[in-house]
Target: Membrane protein
Amino acid sequence: MFSFDSNKKAHLLMVTWSILIASSFPAASLIVGKIDTTSITALRFIISSCLFFIFISIFFKFKIKLPKIKDFICYSTLSACLVFYFWSLFKALETTTPLHTGILFTSVPLFTALISNQIFKVKISKHIKTALLLGAVGAIWAVLKGDIKLLSAFSFNSGDQTFIFGCITFAFYGPFVNFAKKKGMLTASSAVITFWIMLIGSIALIAIALIEQKGELQWGILNYKDYLTLLYLSIFTTIITFWQIQYCTQILDATIVMSYSYLIPSMVLLIDIFIYGNSAPPSVFLGIMFTFIALILINNEFKIPRYFSNSK
Model:
């Protein structure tokens, strides 16, 4: 009999996470440049915070209670990681392309492993390092659709520089959650933590946007299609993905969670092929195969033993 335990649930959630994140790149590009980047990111977070507050108030009977100082510091740190990542995506797309951001996003698992090892002293085996490199190669191959000429034509512009820093802050999120949970610094439910991360992010972004734009947030410039796009981004690629990362990082190791980033280019391609009927060269499936092999290798490695227990 198939047992749907918390680990299997977490893996399934991360597969859906990769699908949702894959949809965020083209969706974000639809509204980029219409108003200030910080202002539009603030609006996205406000919508997310309000909708999520309504949800947890109804289903979890949540009542606002100010967090303790240590909790507030943790929430603010996590919020800063995600806020900067989402802001960097919008900002980068002003001067770069979804293709470039897709390629750069494949660096997140590598940065996660590096941060875990160098900052939080988590042991990363050679086996895992090899699997991460294999996954990166496969993901980049999938992004390029097997056309190596696109990689040779890749030029690192200012938007790419911004987004790579966003990827680094995003990679910091998972290891910090693992560390904070281990030290007893994060004890609230995933839903409560997600709410405070979004609310703190909203307040910080509004303050910065008001200063940058001298009191004018420019939200009235957006039309109903822009707001529909923002609604999609707020619900599916902010609320849900925030909660998925928060929930799954408490069950799986940070490197496992972030390794699902390798699936994103493959998900984009598979949706494009099987839903929209577009064609792709057979060589593309080689990259997809590499990403799945890498995920299998990483998951098998972390079953024995959980690396935090061996850290000194």
Observations:
- Confidence is low (pLDDT under 50) at residues 304-312.
- The chain is about 70% helix and 0% strand.
